[in-house]
Design a protein that fits this description.
single chain; 212 residues; alpha/beta; Rossmann fold; Arc Repressor Mutant, subunit A; 2 domains
Length: 212
């Protein structure tokens, strides 16, 4: 398995490479310091699996994953992150990541995840397993039928508004620019004909949103 490690922290990046060295079936072919370098090195080295950090300069891991998979859909992306935020998890899945681990996972968990992703499987760390069913199960809260006038992105934003998130928190969770979030909020209020954010929250919660 040819593996590319993308992380802006050299201690983690080099430490993971060292951790994988004893495994003869795994070869670390490149190490990227940011998302943009990850995209470039993926095109150069054609790895089987990319271990991708989320929070990186130049280009975050979510957008880097989108760009890598647009160029080579066969690459397995295993996302590593410090947190377990639902918005981040959903964004990684929608970008095409096939694995999601929280930093601090055991050595065995990491190597199993890389092997499984390479084999075409989908892997989530044990601490995240309970969240997957809830996030992926069909529910009125995430159904287009609830607010058909909204786009999918606007429904995501509304769900987070209903959960009490600020614009800044929404921008971070969905990896959007603050201005984009503001524009989405304005569009939501207009489409719902809500007089203010509070009214939008009430309507969204009545529809079952904001409970994740």
């Amino acid at each position: 398995m040819r593996v590319l490690i993308a992380d802006d922290h050299p201690v983690f990046r080099d430490g993971l490479a060292t951790l994988l060295e004893p495994h003869p079936e795994i070869e670390v072919v490149a190490r990227a310091r940011d998302g943009a370098e990850a995209v470039a090195l993926a095109a150069e080295h054609h790895p089987d699996v990319i271990v991708m950090d989320i929070q990186m300069p130049q280009l975050n891991g979510i957008e880097a994953t989108r760009q890598v998979l647009a160029a080579d859909p066969g690459v397995g992306v295993l996302v590593f992150t410090m947190g377990e935020d639902d918005g981040t998890l959903l964004s990684a899945m929608r970008a095409g990541a096939r694995g999601y681990l929280v930093k601090g996972a055991s050595q065995d968990e990491v190597t199993r995840a890389i092997t499984s992703v390479h084999a075409g499987g989908v892997v989530f760390g044990s601490s995240l397993a309970a969240r997957i069913g809830e996030l992926l199960s069909p529910s009125p809260a995430r159904s287009a039928a609830e607010f058909p006038m909204l786009t999918e992105r606007e429904r995501e934003v509304l769900d987070l508004i209903a959960a009490g998130r600020t614009n800044g928190q929404i921008a971070s969770a969905l990896f959007l620019a603050p201005k984009t979030v503001r524009n989405n909020v304005s569009a939501i209020l207009s489409k719902l004909q809500a007089t203010d954010r509070a009214e939008a929250i009430i309507r969204a919660r009545d529809a079952g949103m904001g409970r994740a």
